[in-house]
Amino acid sequence: MKGVDLLPPGLPKPPRTSALRIVAAASVCAFVLVAVLLYVVKAQEVADLRRSLKAQEEDYARYAWLDHDIQETRKSKDEVLARLAAATQQVEGGLPAQEILGDLSRLLPRGVRLVQFTLADDGKAMIDGEAASLEAVASLMLALEDSDLFDDVRLARTGRAGENEGLLAFQAQATLSRTGGEKP
Predict the structure, then answer these.
(1) Per-residue pLDDT reduced to its tens digit, 129-150
(2) What's the rounded Cα separation, in Å, for the pair 138 and 112?
(3) How far apart are CA 157 and CA 130, in angstroms?
(4) What is the separation of C-alpha 176 from the centre of its chain, rounded to a whole number of angstroms?
(5) The whole model's pTM is what?
């Protein structure tokens, strides 16, 4: 059976689309769709990377002051190590105890006798003695303070010396001066 054309003869017939045109149009649409999706995904990645970079730059700016402090600390460390090497070289043979005791005996005023002299590793000295009077103890304290041997001289305690009522027992504390008069 053949198809009958019921349209009047003067009307144009609608154009027929071929399968090739449909496939081509679908391919172009699919390509555009994929391209748009890739663009959106990559744009999102770029935006995420920019946010991450901005956060890292803010973190770096927040801690940039540490670079300066680290350099200053290294300089201080080098200075301290140099001072330590110099001090070690000066006291390599140990504390000059014989010199200290010799100078200390010249500083003792009349009426003062040393009972014990203790020198700790950190330079702290403990001086125990007996004196005929408080004036003699005060003279010793002043002589120790004025000498180049000790700093921070102070009288820790005084009292009567045991059975002998005429003598005063005293204890003084001082810090051994640094060699060369250097202050820490």
Answers:
(1) 998 888 988 998 898 888 878 8
(2) 10
(3) 12
(4) 29
(5) 0.45
